[in-house]
Structure formats: structure tokens, C-alpha cells
């Protein structure tokens, strides 16, 4: 199965769950910005959690499927169409050979994930398919997709074969594509919003910020700035200030760490963050809300809300359990009908 | 030495263990001992261990830890703890297993450097700033061992301790747009070596023919935290031979 890239879109990258285990060597984690949409897309086509998906940003690509394929698109709506028909999101879809999928730009949100049954057949670098742009490794030739690139899919799993068989049984002759009559439940999908509320816990240096700043963090509006990217979201809003200047020794940071450089404007570290940082950390975005932030675009207004570590961890467990339940349901549904 | 280790959660998937305040070889030794111990005795759900100057960060998967613990407690009266409490317990156990006076393994890595010329455009400037000749700067720079405190900033980039302050030099006011891999530089009282091409404001004094980042190899970097290194001056001819 081969997919040809006709137009690459703004920034289309192969990403996976992240290149873990190498931060001690200074190798960044990378991986999908919206891990929920990425994982769900994989689940819907029967892929294991390690497969790469195509992360499409703001303006999506135009792709031609040279052979028939089972795909799923999850995340923000980049307006994908086959001919004049919009492609439904959050469902498995069977596209016939020769199909051209044209994506537009996002009306809301920022990133969309396309999974293909069998995953993308690219070499793993340090155990991962994630694209690490600055070092030029991983993903497709270590870079964003370009016109003319040809991506091969791997072998679908048994689950993938079941899903394909089930969809094809109900296929309509001559249709632009075939799909199922259900999609991932709204309740499971993160509450993506134009102006999301993002829950945080206290960062290591939270107590060293003055009272006005701690107050502002939980009440003020912060706007996503144009210099935001996969490395970090630069926010502008009320200035955050330390009680007194602080000399810090570099220490590790992680996905969702909120750092405050001397100008007082916070930066939330994202998938392509460096492994360590030397700025004081005022907060940490809870892992369950990282997908909301990953879908915030330039100009989005963000509000933070402080929660307890217990709540943060309970929400993390809930997300993990829902994904497990979703995986089991999909397997049961399709194997029974298969 | 490990009793006053401070454990604090960094969100719902990571924990920092602080083992000291500043940057010194004793704290570094504690960092290395804990890192090595966790590499040999990983617990289920541990994703990775990241050593820094005076802290070790542990990333973990709360779901794996939760599900394993609920399995273990099946049919028992004990209260199920939060994953972060379980991780804290595991780390206290690890710290308790470390012994005072234990010496971590440390390798000595020799790094050939061709100093000056086109590879070290700022060598003369560094010498002049410090009232030395370029030869004296080379002799001082290559005359001692450096400790790799941590790797960070870029893949394989070592944060080195132990530079002689007689060859210190401030960063350039205008950073260079691109510095080739292997370049050895000085910034303030620090010396370092660039593993990948990157912009930077360091004073460049030489270049090594060695590759510091090897993405196809395991481990993928020449240097690791805890290594000691020594720079060894080589001629331009020797540099070219190395490159072949």
C-alpha cells in the first residue's frame, strides 16, 4: 500500500508516541502533540500503540492512495474531502484505490492525525518513528513531507483485517468511500475549545513567585503568540514575577512544564521541548489537558485553573483507562461481526 | 548523604529527586549512583531516568503502576495509593539501597582537537583577553580532565566542569549563525563541544574530528553523564586522517 504526497500542507510529519529512553543523551522526546487523537486514530484502524500517524498542522496535505486502504482521521477538522464528500472524523474509513484525499485548513483547532492500517513503513531510529526535525532523524527521512514523497504502509494487524472486512461487507458500489455508522463517543473526546480552560498543578518554583503572579496565573487570560510551535507555546498576558531573582541550575523539564523567562511571559513546553531548562517552573499542565493545548492555535485565549496533584493523576488514569476500554470495545465489536 | 534527598512531583507523570544545591562532584556522584541503580533495578511503569547537575528526574506511566498495584492488593485490606505515592516509595527504597562511599563507574574519553586556524577562529582573541599566547591557551585547555556533569541542550552536548579560569572568555555579542559539529568553544568559565550544527555565541578555539551524536548506534552519543574527558591537541594532518 503506497500513499503519494501531492501537496504537503503546512507542516506534515510522521509522529508516534515519542522517543522515550534517550533524554539522558540529550535526545528530545518529540512525538504527537495531541496524543489522544494520535492514539485513537491508531486504535480505529487496528494498529498497536507504537505505530506512527501523520500529524497535519493547520493546512492539511493532498494525498493519493495508490491502493485501497483502511484509514482514520482524528483531532481537529482540517476539512478532509474525497471528491465533494467530506471525510468523517473519529471513524475507520475504507478508501478505494486511486482515491485522492484533499485537506483544507482548520476552522477550529490546529492538528489532525491520519492513521493507516499497518502503520507507516519507515525505519525506527532509537526505537521510534517520531520525526526530530532539528537533528534530521526519524519519521520520513527526518523531515516534513514534500510533494512527490511516497509513503508505504506496513501489514495490517488481525484487528485491522477484521475492521476492513466488516466495513467492506456493508460497502455501497461506486461510493467515494465506506465507513461505519458510529464514531468515537463525544464523551471520550477531549473538550477541544477555541478558548480552552487548562488545568495545572504547582511547578517546582511556584512558591517563589509573588502573590500577584500566583493569583494572575489562575485568573488572567493568556493568549497564544505567533512564535509558538511544537517546541513550546509562548503566551502573553499578565506578567509573572519572582519575589526575588533566582539563579537556577538546569534541571529536567517535561511535556506541559510552564516556564517563566525573565520577561515574565510564560512558555508551555510541548512535544519538541529540550530535555532540560534553566527557567523557573511556575506550573505543570495536567497530562489529560495536553491535547486541548496541542489544539490551541495562535491567538487562542487560554485560562489556567489550579488543581491538586490527586485530581491531575486521577484524570490521567481516566484517560488511560478510556483508551483501554475503547481498544477492547473495537476489538470485540469487529471480531464478533468479522 | 541520601537521607536529605528531596522528592517532588513534576505533574502527574514525573518525579524529581533533588540530591544537592549547587554543581559539585559530590552531588554529581549521588546523581550518578541513583541513575545507575535505577538502570539496573527498574520498577514496572518506569519510563526513563534523566540525570541533571544535582537532580534525577523519573518519568513514569501512572496507569501501569496503578493497574499493577491494584492487582497486587486484590483481596487485601490495604488502601490503594496514588501512583505518585507508589513511585515515591520505590524511589525511597532505591535511595535506601545506595551506600555512602560507593564509587560510580567512570570512563576516561580522549577527544582529539585541532586547535586554532580555520577551526578555532577565536583562539587568538581568547589568548589576548587573558594575556596569554595561543600555545598557552591550548596547553591549559588540554592540560586537565573535565567531568561530564550532564548531557543536554542538544543530543550529545556535554556540560563540562573543571575549566581553568585563566582561559575564560565572555560569549560573543553577536552569535554565529552556524557552528559546525565537533567545534570546541569557551563561554564564560565553561568549555564545551558542539555535537550538531547549531547557531551559538561561544568563542571557538578548535574542532574535533570525532562524531558526538551517532543516531544509528547504541548508545547514540559518544559521551555520557559521569564520563571524564581529556582534550588532546592534534595537527591539521592528523585531523584529516581521523576524518578518513
Describe this structure as you would to a colleague.
The complex is a heterodimer of chains A (338) and B (244). Chain A is built from 5 helices and 21 strands. In chain A, α1 packs parallel to α5 and α2 (158-169) packs across α5 (309-337). The longest helix of chain A has 29 residues, at 309-337. Chain A folds into 2 domains: 2-189 and 321-337, no CATH class; 197-307, Cyclophilin (Beta Barrel). The mean pLDDT of chain A is 95. Chain A is α+β, with helices and mostly antiparallel strands. Chain A has a 7-stranded mixed beta barrel. In chain A, strands 7-6-9-4-1-11 form a 6-stranded antiparallel sheet, with no helix packed on it. Chain A has a 6-stranded antiparallel sheet with strand order 2-3-10-5-8-12. Chain B has 244 residues and is of the alpha+beta class. Chain B has a 7-stranded mixed sheet. A 4-stranded antiparallel sheet of chain B has the order 1-2-4-3, covered by helices on one side. Chain B has a two-stranded antiparallel sheet with strand order 8-11. In chain B, a hairpin with a 4-residue loop joins β1 (6-9) and β2 (14-18). In chain B, α2 (62-72) crosses α3 (83-97). The longest helix of chain B is centred in the first third of the chain and has 16 residues, at 25-40. Chain B is elongated, with a radius of gyration of 22 Å. The termini of chain B are far apart. The model of chain B has no long low-confidence stretch (mean pLDDT 93). The chains are: A alpha+beta (338), B alpha+beta (244).
| Mean pLDDT, all residues of chain A | 95
* The CATH topology of the largest domain in chain B: Cyclophilin
* Integer count of domains of chain B: 2
> Sheet bearing the most strands of chain B, described?
7 strands, mixed
Overall radius of gyration of chain A? 21 Å
